[in-house]
Amino acid sequence: MKGSIDAAVLKQVESEVRHIKAEYRGVVPEESIDLVAGESLKRLADSRVPQFIPLFVGRFTRERLQELINAERKQGRG
Fold first, then answer.
1. Could you report the per-residue pLDDT of 19-53, keeping only the tens digit for each?
2. Radius of gyration over alpha carbons of the chain, in Å?
3. Contact 57, 37 (CB under 8 A)
């Protein structure tokens, strides 16, 4: 998976994940963010336009984290 993605793109993804961790600090464990971001990256590994991978990893990761947070709130955990 990651072998097919350019190193510069992976560096941008890592930067995006750091920003997400800062946004969700104290709300979502970093391990959960890593897991969700990894799933997003895996989905995008065969992208035809790799320059957009960091953007979409960020978007998909944030959307999934919001879904998880909302689900926990509905169950009375948050």
1. 999 999 999 999 999 999 999 999 998 999 999 99
2. 13
3. yes
Q: Residues of 20-35 as b/e, b for ≥16 C-beta within 10 angstroms?
A: beeebeeebeeeebee
**CA angle, 37 then 29 then 58, to 5°:** 25
Helix (H, G, I), strand (E, B) or coil at 78: coil
CB 20 within 8 Å of CB 33: yes
> What single-letter DSSP state applies at residue 9?
H
Nearest residue to 44 (alpha-carbon basis) of 12, 20, 78: 12
* In the chain, alpha helices (H): 7-23, 30-44, 53-74
